[in-house]
Specification:
single chain; alpha/beta; OB fold (Dihydrolipoamide Acetyltransferase, E2P); Rossmann fold; 4 domains; seven-stranded parallel beta sheet; about 35% helix; about 20% strand; disordered C terminus; DNA repair; nucleotide-binding; RecG_dom3_C; Helicase_ATP-bd; helicase
Length: about 675
């Protein structure tokens, strides 16, 4: 018979690898058991510590089974009560008349007078000493009591190394307390401490923790940047093919495109790995710059991998790369889950023996069976939509472990300054800050679902004038959980309401060749309206499409709405985006729609998006389980972030040993995820 397994230690139950990690498992709020309150002084709903002597304890059965305990506070005539809806027989036996109790909880008026429901209580002797510090309440998991966490934290605090890692002049300049004092104050603050400041995280002890966390992040990023420059990467300097493509393009590069291309070429010509983020608003021409960068690698006799988050975007990129590169005699293959059988084997073989110089695909690019002969450049489009491990896995596809491929990440979601200073601090950032000439502003309107018939009428007029339109729906099929209009149903309704127009349908569940055929027909003008799910969010370029209707826009995020809107406004016509919403609207949804309506500035929208969603969702790191900042808030603590940036460089230069100790405390289990 198997022996029962031992109970996991507290740190393991909380998801930590070592007991010392509990040092930084900080309280979320505090309970004040350092002073006794009197009922007469308490406002309803306020938490407090009360003391009383049990007069009676009885089990009641109406309206439900419960334990009612009556107590008398010293010097009062009326008793007060507490009720327990869940209790054990031994608790009833303990609560006999004459027993003195201390209770902590919320006092509120009840059927029996002033009462507490399920307070924390314990038996005490008369004049028993009070707690000397506030009682911390920690984040926990099911089945793990606060008392166990407190005991484990106290044990770690008693033995852990709390040495100072910051120079005294730096602490003095920033007004920060010592690390040991700050940590002990957070785990066990005294009654004289500013409890409101502790819970708002504005107390000096909290500022010290936030600064230390940000400093650890900045130190790790700088160390990584130094390590990267000591690693070997292929030197890519052949620009002949890129120049040939430029000569073949039907349009000149904008000044912004030329500038960022020069920055990328300079990186590729260095013997250490490029780590560059190329960002630009929707329609700014990032794909063209990526193709020109790929040609520098191809011209140097090496291979390029281009990874996109969805099959339809991978297909769009694949078609663009083929259109531009095949006339130059370059073989381009694509890999995705939908590619099967002989076609897949042919793509894998062409990559392995080097015949294919460029591979475009989805997550399929970094599967075990994919082998490149000589991968020199990895391009990741919409990088925030990939998990950290996925981005690392693509970089690991280089044939020689000693030589690291260059990495170019692209995003149409501009990075707010605070994020650029933190998570992207080890990246070189190129910004395409100008749209191609002729791009016109897109008029954006917010329309209630009740006016859908008017929207359909407007759609008829648009298409009758020779324009094309998108109708975007969030789902493919009806969901019982979400009352959303499905693309399939919307397509059927629009085809019935507008019989004189040609209505097509594309969504993620279509086979790759079906999607490509529908998109090609729409681009060629064979369809007036394309009903689609959000698969057309990025990468789709149809110049004649000048109207977009987005159903249930209230369900979508800011970045997604901005990306979708960018599919129109690519030709000479005035373009419009209609955001259809259903009531009732939450305040957050109302704010999102207002932001998109009032702004076409991708950076302004990105800042609002960060404020609404937080960095984990914005970066795409949450999907990977990677830890983000636990204590600091990038926007609210921007002053600490700026101070940490400058302090990191000085600390590495003046006291590298202290910097290493600081990193060991805050990132004891490595920090590769920061550099993906």
């Amino acid at each position: 018979m198997a022996r029962p397994s031992a109970t996991p230690p507290v740190h393991a139950k909380l998801g930590y690898k070592a007991a010392d990690d509990l040092l930084l498992h900080l309280p979320i709020h505090y309970e004040d058991e350092t002073r006794l309150s009197r009922i007469a002084d308490l406002a309803p709903g306020r938490s407090a510590l009360l003391e009383g002597v049990v007069e009676r304890a009885e089990v009641l059965y109406r309206p439900r089974r419960q334990l009612l305990v009556s107590l008398r506070e010293a010097g009062t005539e009326a008793p007060f009560h507490f009720r327990m809806l869940n209790f054990y027989p031994n608790q009833l036996a303990q609560l006999r008349p004459g027993v003195r109790l201390r209770l902590y909880g919320d006092l509120r008026p009840g059927f029996f007078g002033a009462e507490m429901i399920h307070p924390r209580w314990r038996m005490v002797a008369e004049h028993a000493p009070l707690a000397g510090a506030l009682t911390p309440v920690y984040p926990t998991v099911a089945g793990l009591a606060q008392a166990r966490i407190r005991k484990a934290v106290e044990a770690v605090l008693a033995t852990a190394d709390l040495d100072e890692t910051l120079p005294d002049p730096l602490r003095a300049r920033l007004g920060l307390p010592g690390f040991a004092d700050a940590l002990r104050r957070l785990h066990a603050p005294g009654p004289e401490d500013d409890v409101a400041g502790l819970e708002r995280r504005s107390h000096p002890a909290w500022r010290r923790m936030k600064f230390d966390e940000l400093l650890a992040q900045q130190l790790s990023l700088r160390l990584y940047a130094g390590q990267r420059r000591r690693r070997q990467a292929p030197v890519l300097a052949e620009a002949g093919l890129a120049e040939r493509l430029l000569a073949n393009l039907p349009f000149p590069l904008t000044g912004a495109q030329s500038r960022v291309l020069a920055e990328i070429r300079a990186d590729l010509a260095r013997p250490y790995p490029m780590h560059r983020l190329l960002q630009g608003d929707v329609g700014s021409g990032k794909t063209c710059v990526a193709a020109l960068a790929a040609l520098v690698a191809v011209g140097s006799g090496r291979q390029t991998a281009v990874m996109a988050p969805t099959e339809i975007l991978a297909e769009q990129l694949y078609l663009k790369f083929r259109e531009w590169l095949v006339p130059l005699g370059i073989e381009v293959v694509w890999l995705a889950a939908a590619l099967k059988g002989k076609a897949r084997q042919a793509s894998l073989a062409a990559l392995a023996d080097g015949r294919a110089a460029v591979a475009v695909g989805t997550h399929a690019l970094f599967q075990d069976e994919v082998a490149f002969r000589d991968l020199a450049l990895a391009i990741v489009d919409e990088q925030h939509r990939f998990g950290v491990e996925q981005r690392l896995a693509l970089r690991a596809k280089g044939a020689d472990a000693a030589v690291v491929p260059h990495l170019l990440m692209m995003s149409a979601t501009p990075i707010p300054r605070s994020l650029a200073m933190s998570y992207f601090a080890d990246l070189d950032v190129s910004v395409i800050d100008a749209l191609p000439p002729g791009r016109k502003p897109i008029a954006t309107r917010v329309v209630g679902e009740a006016k859908r018939a008017e929207v359909v009428a407007r759609l008829r007029d648009y298409c009758a004038a020779g324009a094309q339109a998108y109708w975007v729906c969030p789902l493919v099929e009806e969901s019982e959980k979400l009352d959303l209009k499905a693309a399939i149903d919307a397509h059927a309704e629009l085809a019935a309401e507008l019989p004189e127009l040609r209505v097509g349908l594309v969504h993620g569940r279509l086979k790759a060749d079906q999607k490509a055929a529908v998109m090609a027909e729409f681009k060629a003008g064979g369809l007036d309206i394309l009903v689609a799910t959000t698969v057309i969010e990025v990468g789709v370029d149809v110049a004649n499409a000048s109207l977009m209707v987005i159903e249930h826009a209230e369900r979508m995020g800011l970045a997604q709405l901005h990306q979708l809107r960018g599919r129109v406004g690519r030709g000479g016509r005035e373009s419009t985006c209609l955001l259809l919403y259903a009531e009732p609207l939450s305040e957050t949804a109302r704010r999102r729609l207002r932001i998109v309506k009032d702004s076409q500035d991708g950076f302004a929208i990105a800042r609002e998006d960060l404020a609404l969603r937080g960095p984990g969702e914005f970066l795409g790191a949450r999907q990977s389980g990677a830890p983000l900042l636990r204590f600091a808030d990038l926007e609210a603590d921007l002053d600490l972030l700026e101070a940490a940036r400058s302090a990191a460089e000085r600390l590495l230069h003046d006291d590298a040993a202290a910097a290493r100790r600081h990193l060991a405390r805050w990132l004891p289990h490595g920090f590769d995820w920061l550099h993906a």
